[in-house]
Amino acid sequence: MRVAIIGGGPGGLYAAALLKRLDPARDITLWERNAPDVTFGFGVVLSDETLGGIEHADPVVYEALRRDFVRWDDIDIVHRGTTHRSGGHGFAALGRHRLLEILHDRCRSLGVDLRFRTEAPPPDVLSAEYDLVIAADGVHSATREAYAPVFRPHVATHHCRYVWLAADFAFDAFRFDIAETEHGVMQLHGYPFSAAASTVIVEMREEVWRAAGFDELDTAESIGRCAKIFSEALRGRPLRSNNSAWTTFRTVVNDRWSHGNVVLLGDAAHTAHFSIGSGTKLAVEDALALAACLAEQPDVPRALAAYEEERRPVVASTQRAARASLEWFENLHLYRDQPPRRFAFNLLTRSRRVTHDNLRLRDARFTDAVEREFGCPPGTPPMFTPFRLRGLTLRNRVVVSPMDMYSATDGVPGDFHLVHLGARALGGAGLVMTEMVCVSEEGRITPGCAGLYTGRQAEAWRRVTDFVHTQAPGTAIGVQLGHSGRKGSTKLMWEGIDEPLPEGNWPLVAASPLPYKPGSQTPRRLSRAQLTDIREQFVAAASRAARAGFDLLELHCAHGYLLSGFLSPLTNHRTDAYGGSAEKRLRFPLEVFDAVRAVWPAERPMTVRISATDWAEGGTSAEDAVGIARAFAAHGADAIDVSTGQVVAGERPEFGRSYQTPFADRIRHEARVPVIAVGAISSWDDVNSLILAGRTDLCALARPHLYDPHWTLHAAAEQGYDGPGVVWPAPYRAGSRRPQTGRTDAPKPRLTLDG
Question: 175-189, 236-250, 451-465 — which is least confidently predicted?
């Protein structure tokens, strides 16, 4: 096999060494347009997991790396003159030049043809002459651009400028230093990479960078300014450059990673922000996977398909974590007024990979201190601390999220709803929410949707609230009121979600006459008189909800239903007083909110669910969502339930664990209103992490409560918690300990004998 490699960074070099070691008969040539000692940056951080893979695949490289690694365990967060140290993290780093030297030596010893100061031939020429072409030519990959119609790259730039520098002394920890200047917030990321040198990255938002005049300074002046701003962290020492320049991070994603016998590797295929130290790590792991797939598969096409199948989910997960970390630093100014330890905890858990439980294992003393500062009683996890909304005190921070059940008859909730909601109330959550309860027959999503537009429906709901208050005392029950708008008159979810009924359809209404998707019914544009009628339907339903005994009312302004349809510019094309600017699009939802608030008992809280983004170009953005939240808070909303999407059929959500929580976080800190976070929050560890970091006040979980109605009780048992934050119903107390199971471990041998 003849292999061509474009790019002499760590990923390309390591791929060359592995492929040659696994099969010495391979003819491998690597082109690097720069000299051997030319590289960007200073230090490289690798995880123990990556090092383990290297050790298994090539002990020679591992041993050379091991001799030069600097290891440390601590992270220091310095903010407003206070340093908080968290230990137990485990880092290993070395100089980038030294890493390249080790890989150069290994490649040469194995017989790889390294061609420095030489441009690689065009990829189409290489693909014709070689059996395999590995494009490891970095974030600005010419190979990727040459085959852009096939790879379909997506490149996103972000809001911060950063510069990669070094200091000639070794930090004794990974250091994050926050500087609040007259121009705005700046941050330093620093870590040692040898016994006498450290990497120093200085980062700030673009507008801060310009306000501070960095756009007008040359390299030497910029370096001097940075050294002065962070003089305390640097102990008064200077900074130095290595072809350093201010730049903006680019996130690279490709729809495909291979074309014929050409494959992308490392930054050419994907990038992840430096704040989680992942670029070199990902490239090295790509090389390991590619080499393994080539050894395991019978030919190149199947090897490249297997490589992409193996690596894509791992990379996607890392990119989600990196994006969360990147955005945290972009929005650092929102968190600077947090209590010091909570700020440090927030920073440490920013990517959602380090969690509350994980951090407790690493450094229990630090985590305990954060909990004390938050106000957790001894032995009480954050999720089991109370939270007050107006006259309602929730005994814990867990919410059973609204979930449409499509199981009502003529809008009347029956035995199913009693058992469904009653079981979740017995399961220990602080607040149990109904599904979206419709304010009119025409406002239903499906024929199976529950309502509150008749007295009979209200009486049936009273049966449910009485059960909750009697059998699960301390658990609150809330009702979510909504109108389907253009998404109504559809089949039950399991018969065809969002599909029109085959017969018996009812007319739809919406802000504008736009069908939800091709084949959907076109709604009628609401007139002023009809708007008044619908507002009164909400009022009447709210009055019935109050009499039915609900503790909280949520107004559904999300997911493309009627009120949401007014908020989004993609679904509201009106030119009257209810369309156009954001303020006009808010007008009708606020009118409904005010009218409902007027009849809803003063001591009972009201929340509003919104879609914080439409996940579609030209739709509601995160910035718009902050404005929407501020408006509802100004009108008396006690909390904002922050969901996303489902507004337009062509949305492109960025799914992932806790993927919607950054929107709640931003609204909480910018709009200064309590929030409920939702969206793939599935573990009690996530709930504790989000609450303790200050990213949300309450966490709403849907599918986990379908899987386990007693999710909250089990979360308490698994954490060894027994207190007022969650109470086992008397008939269930015998089950408050996890049942014993058969042993799955075997006794270890007393002796291990050779031969």
Answer: 236-250
Per the structure block, which two tokens stand in for 91?
Answer: 């880092």
Asked if 553 contacts 465 with a C-beta cutoff of 8 angstroms, the reply is no
Q: Could you give the CA distance from residue 536 to residue 541 in angstroms, rounded to a whole number? A: 8
Residue-wise pLDDT tens digits, 500-540: 999 989 999 999 999 999 999 999 999 999 999 999 999 99
Determine the 3-state secondary structure of 37 from DSSP: coil
Contacting residues for 699 by C-beta, under 8 A, at least 6 apart: 383, 397, 398, 399, 676, 677, 678, 681, 686, 687, 690, 691
DSSP per-residue letters across 105-168: HHHHHHT-EEEET-PPPPHHHHHHH-SEEEE---TT-HHHHHTHHHH-EEEEEEEEEEEEEEES
Structure tokens that stand for 192 in this block: 């040692």
Parallel, antiparallel, or unpaired for β 509-510 and 91-95? unpaired
The model's pTM is 0.90
Question: Do residues 534 and 526 lie in contact, with contact meaning Cβ atoms separated by under 8 Å?
Answer: yes
What does the DSSP 8-state code read for residue 726? B
Residue 755: what pLDDT? 40
Decide if pLDDT at 560 tops 80.
yes
In three-state secondary structure terms, 754 is: coil
Rounded CA-CA distance 629/567 in Å is: 11
CB neighbourhood size of 56 (10 A)? 10
User: Measured between alpha carbons, how far is residue 26 from residues 2, 17, 23, 110 in Å?
Assistant: 6, 11, 6, 10
The span from the first CA to the last CA of the chain, in angstroms, equals: 40
Chain position carrying tokens 């399961």:
427
Angle between helices 59-68 and 96-110 (to 10 degrees): 150
* CA dist., res. 162 & res. 205, Å (int): 9
**SS3 breakdown of the chain: % helix, strand, coil, rounded to 5?**
40, 20, 40
Give catalytic residue positions: 561
